[in-house]
Amino acid sequence: MKILLLTSIYPIPGIRIPGGTDVCHYFSKEWKNQGHDVMVVNTYTIYPRILHWLGEKFGAAIANIFPVSINTLRPKEPLEFEVDGVPVLLSSTYKRFPKLPFPDKSIHLTADRIFTWLKRKNFRPDIITCHFLHPNIELSKYLKEYFPDTPVGISLHGKISSPNDITTIEKLGNNIDFWGFRSYPIAGSFHKNIKQPDRELYCFSGIPADFIEPSAVDKHNHEGVHKYIFVGNLIHRKHPEAVIKGLAESGINFELEIIGSGQLEEKLKTLTKELKVRDKVIFSGRLSREEVTSRMRDAECLIMISQDETFGLVYLEAMAKGCLVIASKEEGMDGILKSDENGWLVSAGSADELSKQIIKINNLNISEKLTIAQNAIKTASEMTDSIAAQNYMDKLLDFSQSSAK
Question: Where are the chain's structural domains?
């Protein structure tokens, strides 16, 4: 099948985008490996030069506070490149300020660039799947004009709640043939604010199959849970301070390894001294993915009670290594992680709820811990990269075939 993927965030060789994600590339790469013909358009947003300068200077700090990507590069002309053999067109789409709408002229220019590129490549898609709402919903009317018989869908990476987004969807949603969601809570916010779509899919992330380690459950063959791990940026919305407080208030004997860096690091170190747990908390800084998974192999429990989280591969990676996992209610893992079945959910940032949950976990017997760890590994094994991409593809094939009838 010929797939056109539009996304406003995609890897750019040699460029690190603070707050960026490679998830769309995971899908396109897997689809290519499965034998499909995939082309990607990065509908990258650019602003007046002063905003890019600020982004370059303070991008990490901004991304540490808000769940956004910071575009420091400002290419005015289209760029063409490949990432793991997947052809990519980067077409900058201009707007004057982050919260303002895209000018019609800017949307029209990007649309022209897309169609010129596809025509030159002799590529007519069987289906068009877009990630992130803007500017892709604004482009949808041009996509439907140019490819009237091709299904067009948009997958959301965040909850729909702002009046502007709701109005935009109500205005342009008739151009969208199917909607996708990166998590169950995101779908819930859409269903709450927008009428139920006729066709929808879930595009969860996956992990490499070789991460799955069934024998890792053996680490739970003892009473209690003592070795904890946190993996993430040390920023407010990740609530690392609540993890430290929750463990300290539980009164259990524990070790906590904090993997990651960020603006809160010094405050967190001060907090450990105030709570008299400094000797129990290790700050390991930023580590490679291989080093993190190695630490997960030894850890017994991952705690991440973040807010504004789209999905969170770190949870699946920990589950694959037999960790007991505590995540946030109504965030990315809600619906995949089920309390007392394959992990637990508490309110984002609630040290009090976390403390009570830690005490309950420490009162589980060995058999109960092993059962939950085994269920976690089973969940992770059903959500590998190839399975996630295939599940997504199955839906795209279904939508493409039903539209052709």
Answer: 2-206+385-404, 209-381
Answer for the pair 379, 318: CB distance below 8 angstroms, yes or no: no
Residue 390 CB-density burial (10 A; 0-12 exposed, 13-18 middle, 19+ buried): middle
Q: What would be the CATH architecture of the domain defined by 2-206+385-404?
A: 3-Layer(aba) Sandwich (3.40)
Q: What is the pLDDT along the chain (405 residues), one digit of tens a residue?
A: 999 999 998 988 876 665 557 889 999 999 999 999 999 999 988 777 656 556 565 555 555 555 555 556 666 778 899 999 999 999 988 787 777 788 899 999 999 999 999 999 999 999 999 999 999 999 999 999 999 999 999 999 989 878 889 999 999 999 999 999 999 999 999 999 988 788 999 999 889 999 999 999 999 999 999 999 999 989 888 999 999 999 999 999 999 999 998 889 999 999 999 999 999 999 999 999 899 999 999 999 999 999 888 777 899 999 999 999 999 998 989 999 999 999 999 999 999 999 999 999 999 999 999 999 999 999 999 999 889 999 999 999 988 887 655
Q: Report the topology of domain 209-381.
A: Rossmann fold (3.40.50)
Residues forming beta bridges with residue 285, ordered by sequence position: 259
Report H helices in 275-384: 289-298, 313-320, 351-362, 366-381
The tokens for 374 are: 């085994």
Question: pTM, whole model, 2 decimals?
Answer: 0.85
Give the DSSP letter string of 140-207: HHHHHHHSTTS-EEEEESS----HHHHHHHHHHGGG-SEEEESSHHHHHHHHHHSPPPSSEEE----B
The neighbouring-strand residues paired with 152 are 128
